[in-house]
Amino acid sequence: MPLDEEAVAEIYREHGPMLRRVVWRATNDANRVEDIVQEVILRVWKQAPQADNLRAYLITTARHLIVDQHRAAGRRPQEATLTEIAERDSALDQALDQVLVEEALGRLQDNHRDVVRCLYYQRLSVAEASLRLGVPEGTVKSRAYYAVRNLRVILDEMGVTR
Amino acid sequence: MTTGPDDLHVLLGAYVLGGLSDDDHRAYSEHLRTCTQCQAELGQVSGLPRLLDLAGPEGGLHLVAPPPGAPIPLMKEPDDERVSTLLTEVGRRRRRRRTLASVLGAAAAVALFAGGAWLGPSILRATTPEPPTTHVTASAPGSAASVDVALVTRGWGTQLDLECSGLPTDSPLTLWVVDNYGKEYAAASWRAGGSGYTKLTGSTSVPTYEIKSVEVRTSMGKVVASART
Are residues A29 and A77 in the same domain? Predict the structure, then answer.
């Protein structure tokens, strides 16, 4: 039983922008982005999954589409060893995970993202981050806690489970 | 700054991200031994640093201002025209479903992706910086297996990221960590897939500097790959 048109339009409106960013940055080819995004949504519509987590389902579908195309664009299977194929897919998986992690960081609320930037990427101590951000150390600690929890939830929603 | 016992659980965040003072780090490590709730929460989020490393040394586009002259092309929000294009396609496919139900899937994929080599190079060029880890490549005489192990130092011990190929598929495999005292610890177990290629993450409480070697063994104890650190 396919989803009806209104549901497709709803998926497109709600998840289209996110999918478009992910696909663009995974493929680096703006001309193909809309084709892939539409194909992803059409496949989801066609299979009409009763998915609890539509976002993860859409991203997984996009991943499969990109991987399939990536393989088709590569060497003929008989010329590549299984190891080479696996390595290529692994590089692709990593590139997609990278895109999704960046996307997830973008979805964190601002003050949580600031704390991740200070503590993780800039390697500041809690005390230094407190000065940098102009908030008490206790606030840095509690924001770090919620930042980490929320990031995990966002990544889970995207289907990044490792 | 000191932290009262009631506040200890929030230290999880800075424990994972880094930045705790020595006192807080000690207090939280101590707290972790007995707090099962924190242990469970840590288990859920301890993989985050590895993921965060994927976004590059500065965390990617949302954490740094884009360099001048290299703006990211603006992706237009979906507008009504695009939605109606999509809905037209939905209607078209639904009609085709009725007549071509058995071949529709294949036909649609071919039509949309007949374009050829548009993707490959750009994906493989995407790089991530080397995380602060020790890489060793393991093999064993007479074995076709190749195992790349990255040892990542963690607050709780060592994370072992493995990429294996050529592993035997006829036996469950176990990753063993041998410490400086010759004691052995199982750090992961799995079964290699059809291609013999596996990517997985194991963990051990043994600190990175105490790990003397790592070995992949079959259930019969045969060593298929080993490496000294």
Answer: yes
The whole domain housing A114 covers: 109-162
How much is the pLDDT for B162? 79
Chain A closest-CA separation from residue B12 CA (Å): 6
* Minimum CA–CA partner of B127 in chain A: A95
Count CA within 13 A, CB hemisphere, residue B134: 19
- β-strand B157-165 against B184-191: which pairing, if any? unpaired
Place of tokens 């606030």: A139
Residue B208 lies in a domain: yes
Other Cβ atoms less than 10 A from the Cβ of B52: the count is 22
- Which chain B residues contact residue A145 at CB under 8 A? 9-14
Predicted confidence at residue B12, as pLDDT, reads 95
Q: What is the pLDDT of residues A73-117, one digit of tens each?
A: 664 555 556 666 666 666 667 777 888 888 889 889 999 999 999
CA distances for B174 relative to A24, A87, A103, B182, B186, angstroms: 39, 22, 35, 17, 7
| Band of pLDDT at residue B103, cut at 50, 70 and 90 | very low
B110 is a domain residue: no
In this prediction, residue A86 carries a pLDDT of 66
Q: Which residue has the higher pLDDT, B24 or A11?
A: B24
| Span B11-24, pLDDT tens digits | 999 999 999 999 99
Chain A residue nearest residue B104, CA to CA = A46
* List of chain B residues whose C-beta atoms are within 8 Å of the C-beta of residue A105: 52, 55, 59-60, 62-63
List the CATH number of the domain containing A129. 1.10.10.10
Indicate yes or no: CB of A105 within 8 angstroms of CB of B55: yes
Q: Which domain holds residue B41?
A: 5-45
**CA nearest B9 in A: which residue?**
A145
